[in-house]
Amino acid sequence: MNILFMGGHELGAKTLEHLINNNVNVVGVVVSKNDNDWYRGVDEVANKFNLNLYEEKNINDQNFLNKIKSLNLDLIVCVNFDQILKKDIINLPTIGCINTHASLLPKYRGRAPLNWAMINGEEYSGVTVHFIDEGIDTGDIILQEKIKIDEDYYISDLLNKVKNIYPKIVLNAIRALESNNLNLIKPDLSKGFYVNKRSKDDGKIDFSKPSKDIMNFIKAISKPYPGAFLYHNNKKIIIWRARLDYNISPQYESLDIGTVVFNNSNLFIKLKDAMLIVTNYEFE
């Protein structure tokens, strides 16, 4: 099976290396040609194994399609790739194109699915390998693995789980396609939804929300993301680690919601029904 790999960042790099180490026939590797270091890493793996490397601004461009036609592709595999495949390239491989998405599709189609799942207090997230069609994360599901989001998880913990799953589930999907041992699931899109890309400015804390929602929000966008923040005395404070204390000390009961109190090395913030004890923060 001739496979073209498209990907970026650590997830893409780890998955590509795992495929090569398991004798998957990767005949070429595509990375986006841009200045965003977030998507680097895959090119280094391609160079390490002397694979054909394509750096492309637009993989739907006819010039690129002409380049890869001679590869006689059976499958295109996308892992953390930042371009949308259109009809002509989707139809190029004999088997099709597959993508790996960090959610239990059809829920959380689109961008930043892990962050949104934690923000919304989901008990589970997961990883899905699916065929690519002309929609966004709407193709038939090949494999899916569920991840429990433990109560004490921060986004970095969930990312570590996902990093371990991606290489294995992609390899398993390829093996299933090779052997034609498939049990495809057509997603019921009425039971799912899209989520949007998040930006740094989306991290401002809304103190009118319930305490648990605020805690979920902090955990969902902590490192390696930009972090939840508030302003105090015209200074921006980014919160990295915190916990809730529902036994509010009498000295804090009369404080307005959102009031900030510095106590030794910790930061105390009055919420609706709890104190937010911030144990790791920084000024920006």
UniProtKB/TrEMBL annotation:
Q: What are the coiled-coil residue ranges? A: none
- Residues in Formyl transferase N-terminal domain copies: 1-173
Q: Which UniProt keywords apply?
A: Protein biosynthesis, Transferase
The molecular function terms of the Gene Ontology recorded here are:
methionyl-tRNA formyltransferase activity
Known EC number(s)?
2.1.2.9
What does the entry list under GO cellular component?
cytosol
Domain named Formyl transferase C-terminal is located at 199-283
The record's CDD domains line, in alphabetical order, gives: FMT_core_Met-tRNA-FMT_N (cd08646)
Please indicate if the UniProt record lists Protein biosynthesis as a keyword: yes
User: What Gene3D superfamilies does this protein map onto?
Assistant: 3.40.50.12230
Mind telling me which Pfam families this protein's record contains? Formyl_trans_C, Formyl_trans_N
The family classification in the record reads: Belongs to the Fmt family.
Q: What is this protein called?
A: methionyl-tRNA formyltransferase
Species assigned in the record: Paraclostridium bifermentans ATCC 638 = DSM 14991
